[in-house]
Amino acid sequence: MNDLKLILFDCDGTLVDGQHMIVSAMKAASEKAGLEYPGDEKTRRIVGLSLYQAIEAVFPALSPEKYEEIKDHFTEHFIHLRSLPDQNEPLYEGVREMLHLLKEKGYLLGVATGKSMRGLKHTIKNNKLEGLFVTLNTADCGAGKPDPAMIYAALKDTGVRAENIYMIGDTVFDIDMAKNAGVKSVGVSWGYHEVSELRTSGADYIINHISELLEILEG
Predict the structure, then answer these.
(1) What is the pTM assigned to this prediction?
(2) Could you tell me whether strands 6-9 and 135-138 are parallel, antiparallel, or unpaired per DSSP bridges?
(3) Is the peptide bond before 90 cis (omega within 30 degrees of 0)?
(4) What CA dihedral angle connects 71, 58, 141 and 176, to 10 degrees?
């Protein structure tokens, strides 16, 4: 077990592109709560955080009751979007193939995401990724990013040593979480934060396509 490697993936912005649904839900929640929508760019910036953290980031200094109201509106709209046949969170190019290849090669795979567990399981099912991941860790199971709790939970689930864990993500929240947990970090260029930000945060590696990941793992 100690020689195994665990590859943890962020979800939105790393495995799937779900920004259109997140942006739409935040816009609807803002309007229903009587608040000015913060804009698409500001909303994309908080993808990866837990929902409550994200709302606090875009709407600072509101009452706890108002945060809960926005959270409820967001969740309601997001669930509605997810029920529509023309709404989905598509996998990025090459992701499916790489996940299967990594599993075939004996790597353990997991997810550490700001999504809810319900949302993550829906995304996995919708994209037919069942059976690939041995550990699923979400913000509603404990502290959200950049707290290392999700990585610690994955470590406990698998018994893999910290030095054999790689965190793959598109935001500084992912990189910071990896650093806080003492594991390696791989930033991806196709997500919601700029590569320059990932480098500044201390990403150990940067990749421009998921196909580049195997070279890092086996290098």
Answers:
(1) 0.89
(2) unpaired
(3) no
(4) 170
Tell me the backbone φ, ψ of residue 115, rounded to 5 degrees: -65, 165
Cα–Cα distances in angstroms (integers) from residue 125 to residues 120, 145, 174, in the given order: 9, 24, 23
Which element (helix H / strand E) includes 135? strand 135-138
Cα atoms in the Cβ-side hemisphere of radius 13 Å centred on 153: 21
* 3-state secondary structure at position 188: strand
Q: Distance between CA atoms of 183 and 26, rounded to whole angstroms? A: 32
Cβ density class 38-68: b for 16+ within 10 Å, e for less: beeeebbbbbbbbbbbbbbebbeeeeeeebe
> Residues 121-147: pLDDT tens digits?
999 999 999 999 999 999 888 789 999
| 219 alpha-carbon distance from chain centroid | 25
* Burial class of 7 by CB neighbour count within 10 A (0 to 12, 13 to 18, 19+): buried
Residue-level pLDDT at 1: 44
Q: In order of start, what are the domains of the chain with their CATH numbers? A: 6-17+90-218 (3.40.50.1000), 19-83 (1.10.150)
The pLDDT > 70 percentage for the chain reads: 98
Beta carbons within 8 Å of 22's beta carbon, 6+ residues apart = 12, 43, 44, 47, 78
DSSP state string for 6-50? EEEE-SBTTTB--HHHHHHHHHHHHHHTT-----HHHHHHTBTB-
Amino acid in position 40: D
